[in-house]
UniProtKB/TrEMBL annotation:
Keywords: Cell membrane, Ion channel, Ion transport, Membrane, Transmembrane, Transmembrane helix, Transport
Gene: mscL
KW Ligase (keyword) present: no
Protein name in UniProt: Large-conductance mechanosensitive channel
Major localization listed first in the record, in broad terms: membrane
Keyword Transmembrane among UniProt keywords: yes
Length: 142
């Protein structure tokens, strides 16, 4: 039992996953800072995003006589925040990294990928055509 657990831990996937979680947490801090410091003020230039929480709140009476509030504005604000984070991640991190990878691959001048193998049907057709050509050019039997 312990041996199986040790093999699982040392397999490499778990360690890679742990590193990814730690890097992801650090990366989250960077993205959240970019959004809070740059994107949210940019959105604030056009409309007050902080007021969405209260602006689109709908109070609904409950069966017990109280009220519950559906905060649709908070949902819209979360969607805007998500889209802002996605835009920052794509344009600041993903797109530049993809360009760097393309440049590195171009510098390495990787050999072109080999042509795909013909299918079984294509090979059989080629064999049939070759046999037919041989029979057509062969001298007649006496």
């Amino acid at each position: 039992m312990i041996k199986g657990f040790r093999e699982f831990i040392l397999r490499g996937n778990v360690i890679d996953l742990a590193v990814a979680v730690v890097i992801g947490a650090a990366f989250t801090t960077i993205v959240n800072t970019l959004v809070a410091s740059f994107i949210n003020p940019l959105i604030g230039l056009f409309f007050a995003a902080d007021s969405l929480n209260e602006a689109l709140a709908v109070p609904v009476p409950t069966l017990g006589g109280g009220t519950v509030t559906f905060a649709f504005g908070a949902i819209i604000g979360a969607v805007i925040n998500f889209l802002a984070v996605a835009v920052v991640v794509y344009f600041v991190f993903v797109m530049p990294m993809n360009r760097l990878k393309e440049r590195a691959a171009a510098r390495e001048q990787l050999p072109p990928e080999p042509e795909p193998m013909p299918s079984e049907a294509e090979i059989l057709i080629q064999i049939r055509d070759l046999l037919q050509k041989q029979n057509d050019t062969a001298p007649p039997k006496p």
